[in-house]
Specification:
single chain; mainly alpha; Leucine-rich Repeat Variant; 2 domains; ARM-like
Length: about 180
């Protein structure tokens, strides 16, 4: 394993972008190394990727930011993307990143995306909501999660039920 900071940021980004499989091991090794750097150079490069021309670039930027730190700088980038982005895979990554950041300020963006037509995006919202609602859970977040428990997509509904149970401490009955 390379030392933290041992590989140049641009080299790690190139490695991640070369991997065609978004879940590929080489891509995620590079992302992990970038996240472990935890520096402003990496944040700046990831933010630049979030405005990239390709889906792969934008997803990579979001995936790096999701666990890099710099929450106060990252949230505005992701919230802007949640409004302007039209690629479902990128929006899904944005929602997963919100969940990793665990910041209540993402709640309006996640609630808005919880109504999206694409079940992958609603699934991402069901993942993010329990992580960002805070304690005690925000009532608007709980309401959005409850709506997702009734989702026609079984995976979305199941994940929402789990999130609701974890957030409230009560099991949610199947509907």
């Amino acid at each position: 394993m390379a030392m933290i900071g041992g590989a140049a940021v641009e080299s790690l980004i190139e490695t991640a972008l070369r991997e065609q499989d978004q879940e590929g091991a080489a891509r995620w090794r590079a992302i992990t190394q970038l996240q472990e750097r935890g520096d402003l150079e990496t944040f700046t490069a990831a933010r630049r990727l979030c405005s990239g021309k390709t889906t792969a670039e934008r997803m990579l930027g979001v995936d790096i930011l999701g666990r890099l730190g710099f929450v106060d700088r990252t949230l505005p980038v992701l919230r802007a993307m949640s409004v302007r982005e039209d690629d479902c895979l990128v929006l899904y990554s944005v929602l997963i990143a919100f969940g990793h950041l665990r910041d209540r300020r993402a709640l309006p963006s996640v609630i808005a995306l919880a109504e999206h037509d694409d079940p992958r995006i609603r699934y991402g919202a069901a993942y993010a909501l329990p992580n960002i609602m805070g304690s005690p859970p925000d009532p608007t977040g709980l309401a959005a999660l409850r709506r997702l428990t009734l989702d026609p997509d079984e995976d979305v509904a199941d994940w929402a039920r789990l999130g609701l149970a974890l957030s409230t401490g009560r099991e949610v009955e199947d509907v």
